Amino acid sequence: MNNAKDNLPLIGKGVLKSILGSFPVGATAVAIYNELQAKQVKRKIERLEDFYHSLDEKVNTIEKKINEDFISKEDFQDVFEEATRYVVLERQAKKREYFKNILANSIVSSECNYDKTERYFRILDNLSETELDVLAVLEDPVNYNRRYGMIIPDPINNEYQTSWNSSRADGVLTQLLGISIDDAIEATTVLFSNGLIVENVLNRKIESNSHPVHVLDHLLTKRGRDFVKFLEL
Q1: Global pTM?
Q2: Positive or negative CA dihedral for 78, 16, 47, 188?
Q3: Which end of the chain has fewer CB within 10 Å, C or N?
Q4: From CA 166, how far away is CA 106, in angstroms rounded?
């Protein structure tokens, strides 16, 4: 069996050189790689390699924004290892991308807050695909609807229209995502319990002649908006 160092060229000259400089996180990455090799879990090794390649590409675009204070402290080694292990264990490619984004956005954050990074890792780990889709909708309902081909068409607005339409959040959300009301209730309950959305989202309603998706405007909390920003949905 070849040494892991021979199989991870990024350890020496890619990610760790461009992001970390002399910070001793290479040993952590090699240890995880050796651990996976010992267990002969090919798919997890591939996830690890993909993560390092993807992270290296990301860093090339943010290198000038990196918070040196964040990456120079010992706590960063723990955060880096935690991100790596989440990625290795995650089956969904989309969520692996989000773990990478949380790490990358933490690196360029003006604050040095490892607790927040780890909290966001835990939140993401516990969110289902449906719950992430709900967040994507609530980040920008109008743009989401437009991006997916105007699932809910524009209302007919003209000089002869005098009546306003009543729109409910539960109906609009389930229509946008093509999910049942039970799935919507479960997803919003989880998101609320994590402090990402306001209370009673599905009960919101508006009466207006504007687009029905506006009933979903401004339903993310401050933490929710920040979390979504770190995911780069």
Answers
A1: 0.86
A2: positive
A3: N
A4: 41
Looking at the DSSP bridge assignments, the partners of residue 207 are 166
Q: Which two tokens stand for residue 150?
A: 């105007």
Structure tokens at 115: 């607790």
Q: Which contacts of 126-131 are long-range, i.e. CB under 8 A and separated by 24 or more positions?
A: 126/190, 126/194, 127/95, 127/190, 127/191, 127/194, 128/187, 128/190, 129/92, 129/94, 130/177, 130/179, 130/183, 130/186, 130/187, 131/187, 131/190, 131/191
What would you report as the CA-atom Rg of the chain, rounded to the nearest whole angstrom? 21
- The rounded distance, in Å, linking the Cα atoms of 187 and 168 is 17
pLDDT tens track for 63-113: 889 898 898 888 988 999 999 999 999 999 999 999 999 999 999 999 989
Q: How confident is the model over 118-151, as pLDDT tens digits?
A: 999 999 999 999 999 999 999 999 999 999 999 9
Beta bridge partners of 167: 206
